[in-house]
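Let's sit down with a protein and look at its sequence and fold side by side. Go ahead whenever you are ready, and we will take it from there.
>
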Amino acid sequence: MLVELSIRDFILIDRLDLSFNDGLTVLSGETGAGKSILLDALSLAIGGRGETGFIRHKKDQAVVTASFEIKNHEMLESFLKQIEVDFREIEQDGLILRRVLKREGSSRAFLNDRPISVSALKEIGELLVEIQGQFDAHGLMRPSSHKQFLDLFANHPALLKVVGEKFLYWEKCKNRCEAAKLELKKSTEEQEFLEFSLNELEALSIKDNEEEELVQLRSSLINAERNIELINSSIGYLSGEKGAAIILSNVQRSLDRISIKIPSVVEAIDRAIVELNESENTLARIADEMNSDETRLEEIEVRLAEIRSLARKHGVPSTKLPKLAEEIRMKLKKIKSDDNTIQDLEKEVSDSKVAFRDLATELSESRKKHGKRLEKAVTSELPEMKLDKASFIVHSTTADESNWNIHGCDEIKFLISTNRGSTPGPLNKIASGGERSRLLLALRAALSTIDSVPTLIFDEVDAGVGGAVSSAVGKRLKKLGVNQQILVVTHSPQVAALGKHHWQISKSDEVEPKTTATQLAKDERVEEIGRMLSGEKITAEARLAAIKLMEE
């Protein structure tokens, strides 16, 4: 229950503090006095939209604080637990919501002086207060909200929850299946390329680190070519026309022609010639061996070119080619096995749809059953709302599959017939503004014992009606006040007279006008209701009429 509202520097309000009690509280005042400003301020405090235009002229910020008394509110307890707020302390000390709106456009929210997000503030506010105008009626004019009204009346949250879970699982299965089909289609389209690439890789049969080994071997073979040149040159020095062997042979022939024999020298020259021949043979053999590696060098160059070309083609380092081959093998294997996977996923989609549909059907039956009860409950309220010729219809149909959602498969519409025998039609086309207001009250009366929102605020819900109808509206508001705190902004004296508490909203005639609020005692209420009956000049007859209205 809302117990206090504190407003600072909000539009026409510089400083205003209001206290509230249970039952029906009336807010009245002349047009333009600022009644709707109070509701805008309260809306800001409970997470409504904030804009710099709300800040009073020449002020830097606006601050609105709403204080609540909390008792036995399971939905609020559950939400506060999510944001790690101790509900027992809230029950003991109360709940204070505060919103600060800065001139530069920033906005801050607090729960018992603890900073919270504006979205969290809004969720808490929706659990505590519902502000309803004549034409929004919390979405009563919007068919999309009718399902929520019916579900609130049916009171089947557990069934709603499991239907939502089944729908989300069905959606998850569909998404997984579609993703798998898309992947399979993409893979199948590149299967031919993958097979060709794998054949290339397997034909090349690249080994780990092969390129590095080939580069090293090529470097060694390129050096061998230079060595062959040097060896052939050395052989030329040994056995060429001017080589060491020819020179030694000439020396040997010269020594043979002299008369003096020098055996030691001759033997040494013979040995040198033999060793030179052996060295020449050894060098020739080594050169031949090296010449045979030239073919190997060509093979290495070709191999390196093939490896590097394939690496460029696939955009990977050559060291990754063996791994790439394995990855392609796995892709091809997966493509062959994906057909079976798709079949399994399609079965999972079918099974999850059936599971959702079965529970959604159960939910539909519950809605139909409680829809009949809601029709009777609302229709029974209509005579008291001076709509005794009207009938209220809950129309239920199965939506197209494309419109199924976490709330099931149903399309729910509230229809009304304002005269016996007339065809029921949509509320916004059949009912007038006053009739909609009364229908809202009848619907609220039907939901009053199960509605978890403790405070309902009606902004001129009696607009467009008068006399006995206004009195009927006031009586229904008063009756609603037995189970919930009701605040009503009204211009109707019949409604104002039935309030348990009464605030008069007025605006000063100063250079900078200010909106003020005064809680009225009984005599003051007589004056205010008399004003509402007769206008600016309050007559004795108006006072007597006001007293009579208050005594009803």
Summary: The two ends are 26 Å apart (CA to CA). The chain is about 55% helix and 15% strand. The CA atoms of residues 309 and 315 lie 10 Å apart. The longest strand covers residues 2-10.
